[in-house]
Each structure stands twice: as C-alpha cells, then as structure tokens.
Amino acid sequence: MSSMGTTTFEIVINLVKTVLIFLMMVQAVPILVWLERRGSGFIQNRFGPNRVGPLGLVQLLADAVKFLNKEDFVPDKGNRFLFYAAPVFALIPAAVAFMAIPMSTPLTVGDSTFLIQGYEVNIGIVFILGISAMAVYTMLMAGWGSSSKFSLMGAMRAAAQVISYELALGLAIVGVILVYGTFNLTEMIVAQQGPLRFSGFGFDFVAPTAFLPNWGIFFQPLGAILLFCAAFAESNRLPFDLAEGEAELVAGFHTEYGGFKMLMFFIGEYGHMMIAAGLMTTFYFGGYGIPGWTTQEVYAAGLSMFGNETAASVFNTAIHFLSFNIKFAIFLWIFIHVRWTLPRFRYDQLMDIGWKTMLPWALFNTILTATVIFLASQYIIG
Amino acid sequence: MPLGGIIFIIFFIAVFGVILIYLARAIGGVAKRTSEAKMEIYECGIPEMEKKDTKISVNFYLTAILFILFDIEIIFMYPWAVNFREFISAGAGTYVFISMAIFLAIFIYGLWWEIKSKALDWEN
Question: Which residues are registered as beta bridge partners of A197?
Fold first, then answer.
C-alpha cells in the first residue's frame, strides 16, 4: 500500500483525498485563529471577537472578505517575482509534510483499502523533517523580495532560529527512532498499541491494566519535552517569535505584506503548528490509538454491532480519527495557551537556549536511550 | 515512495495559491499610485535610504555553517538508530555501540569547542 493504488478508481480517490486533506488544513486555520483570539480574550479577561455571528464565529468570514478587498501592493524597489512567489511557496512545505502523518486506521471498502493520510512514506520521519525545513526558503524569499531592512532582518533571524532549533529537533527524534527501530509512522503507532510493556535486564514488565497505554512518552519523556519546545521555535510561535518581534522589527519578514498574501503566510505558520501537534501525537501519545482498546478490538466491536465488514471498517476509522483529533486539538490548544502566557525571549537568549541548552540535553537523551537499550539487552539483574 | 501523489499535491497547492493571489488581485485591484511615498518600502516614516546590499551580522553566516556541520552529523545517527536493535539481536551490539560512542565523543568535543571559542555568542 505504499503506492497510490492500482486501479484508476483507487488512484482517483487517493488524489482527491490529498486535495481534501489540504483543504481541511486550510479551513482549519480560520477556526484556529478564532480559537486563538477568543482564547487570548479569556486569558486576558476580555471578550475577543463576539459581535459577528454566534460567538463571533462569522468574524473569520468577514476577515476573509476584507482581505479580498485589499488592493494588491508591491513596493517599487521590491523583487516582484520573489514577492509573489514567497506566499505561494509558504503553503507547500507545511501541507506536503502534514499529509505523511497517519490520522486513522486504513478504511477498507470492498477490495480497496484507503489510508487516512495523504500518502504513506516509508521514511516518514526523514520526509517530514526534510520537507518542513523548506519553509526557511519562503522566509528568505519574502525577506529578500521585499528589499526592506525590517523584512530582511526578520528573515535572517527567522532562518537562523529555525535552523538552530532544527538540530535539537532532529536529535530528539533520534531517541524516538532508537525506541521504535523504524522511520515509518504507522509502524510506530502499531508499536504503541496495547498495555505498557517493557522487556530487558532479564525480566518482562507488562502493565496490570490495559488502560496504561504503551505510549512513547513513558520511554522518551525528555525527548518529548525537547521536541515540543523545538517545535515552538520551528513554527515561529511565542515565546520564540523573534522573527516578527514587533518591538524592534515591525512584523519581521512579512512587513510589506498585506491582504491574501499575508493570510497565506498565516496558513503556513499554522500548518507547521499542525505538523508539530501531529508529530507529538504520533511519536509520544499513541497516534490514533485509544488507551485500553487495540484497533483489532474496536474493529471486532464494530463487526458485532453492524455485522458488515465495510460498516465495521468505517466505524473503526471514524473512532480512531476522533481519537487522533482529540489529542491533536489538545496540543494545538497548548500552543495557543503558551503564546498568551509566556513573554518573548531576547535574541541572544534564544540562540543560547537552542545551541547551549537544548542541543546538549538532546545529546544526553540520545546517549541515555542508547545506553539503556544496550544494557537492557546485555545484562540480567537478579 | 508515492512520488506521483507528492508531485501532484505540490502542483495543486501551487496552482491553488496562484489562483488565490489572482482572485485577490481581481477583486481588490492593484494598488493605485496616489503618491510616491505610498509605493516606498516601509521605513518608520523617514525618507527611504534602502540599498540592496544591507549589511547583515556575520553571526548569521557562522550559525548557518555550523548548522550544516552539526545537521550532517545528526543525520549520520539516523541509520544507526534505526538499525541499533537489529544489530543487538544479531550479536553486534557492542561493536555498534562503541563505534557510535566514538562518533558522539567527536561530536561533543566539537560542540564544546564551538561554545568555548565563542562562535555562538551574540552579545558583542
């Protein structure tokens, strides 16, 4: 199932699916913006947008209409091609990388099986890291294309920040790979099914209750913290949003942008947030798995309820999709909550945290994980 | 690798983005030149003094070079990490563990040297 299908029907469905996931990502952005503005309102003891429609939900539509009516502006001295290309390219890395994250169990209809993800990439981790790192180019394109000092400085800062935290991120993931022994995200999720179990040092430990899941967070707590912190920097969110530090750089690399082009940068930024939330869910919190029930048990329950294999498969997929989205939404909310809780770092502090604190800790995590795995296989206690 | 699907979605997103930009341009219109100052780049209200060759702190280049160095070293760990358990079960665990320990020692020495030589300091 690594290809895009064998019959024309399967190929068409798979291509439509990738488009649908992309459009779902795009339409999730206004909802997240609404959540962010309302959430910030409640955190700061004010209302946030509440006038347009119920709970202010239609505010986003009004914003989109306003964005559409903005006149299209390019500064005289700007490089027109780079200026227009940067927002278009900003959409690509986030969406393409996000599609490699499995969101639910495969859906079986008749003879065809469809994955609930854009495509399954066997080297999933490397693919996601490689593609999402391309976002640096869009920032540099925007900064250079605007030919404004503020934009260029913002772009340089953003690029230096993103590549610096890429190191801690990449090294934190080495621990994950050591634990699961695979690059494939689906295999990782399958390995996290069932109760917590650990074998090594000559004994086998299995959790007494099935509700204590076999999640990666119990094997990689330090790695999870490092990856999540690095993800904040990767997606240019507070407390790491030095790229657009309003106090000194106006708006960073998108100082000259407005209207829909600005909105496309937003979609890219929120897309990176979604990748980070999806990766946290997949690596450390069992992906679409449900604590207490394996996918086979849910499928069997569906089969006994509906007595039909297709209906059972749809039930299985829907339940696991819900499970994935609950975990996913919790991480997205943490992103929003942290943004309105912590102040911004200074730039030298930011670089010091990346290079002198997180990179050594990630190294320590890698060495510790490898040593424990090695010793657990070599020595017997008691 | 589902290369066809990936290429398809990249082109789809690119076309989607271009259409969005043209749509916004068609509805909102192109910026009219009502004054020279409007088309200038933003510079706090003073007359623009922009040159293309804006000077950038050398620290950015240092960071980029060091990033490439360390990132390649980290990427070297990936194949080792993914095969570590297989090597252990094949009986070559000690050899692989000690090889990577030597590699990591060089990595840590390099990082320590970079920090000590103040290549990563931004305060000056």
Answer: A206
pTM recorded for the entire structure: 0.88
Most A CBs within 10 A among B6, B109, B112, hence the mutation to make, goes to B6
| Mean of pLDDT over chain A | 86
Count H helices and E strands in chain B, helices first.
3, 0
Alpha-helical (H) ranges within A181-220 are 185-191
- The shortest C-alpha distance from B107 to chain A (Å) reads 9
Structure-block tokens of residue A113: 């099986």
- Dump pLDDT digits (tens) for A111-161: 778 888 888 888 889 999 989 888 889 988 888 888 777 888 888 888 888
Q: What is the ipTM of this complex?
A: 0.84
A226 belongs to a structural domain: yes
Q: In this complex, which of B5, B20, B32 lies closest to A4 when CB atoms are compared? A: B5
pLDDT of residue B1: 55
Residue A197 lies in a domain: yes
Residue span of the structural domain in which A164 resides: 72-378
Report how many domains make up chain A.
1
Mutate one of B11, B22, B36, B41 to test the A interface: name it (highest A CB count within 10 A): B41
- In degrees, rounded to 5, the angle at the alpha carbon of residue A276 between the alpha carbons of residues A272 and A280 is 170
Write the residue in A2, A352, A374 that is nearest to B88 by C-beta: A374
Position A326 pLDDT exceeds 90 = yes
Count CB neighbours of B109 within 10 A: 10
Grouping H, G, I as helix, E, B as strand and the rest as coil, residue A78 is coil
d(CA A86, CA A89): 5
In a domain, A54, yes or no: no
The residue ranges of chain B whose pLDDT is under 70 are 1, 44-45, 48-53, 124
**DSSP for residue B57:** -
Q: What residue segments make up the domains of chain B, in order of their start?
A: 3-116
Torsion-angle region of A209 (φ positive above 0: left; ψ -120 to 50: alpha; else: beta) = beta
Which residue among B1, B43, B114 places its CB closest to the CB of A121? B1
3.90.550.10, 1.20.58.1610, 1.25.40.10, 1.25.40.20: which CATH number matches B3-116?
1.20.58.1610
Classify residue A44: in a domain, yes or no.
Answer: no
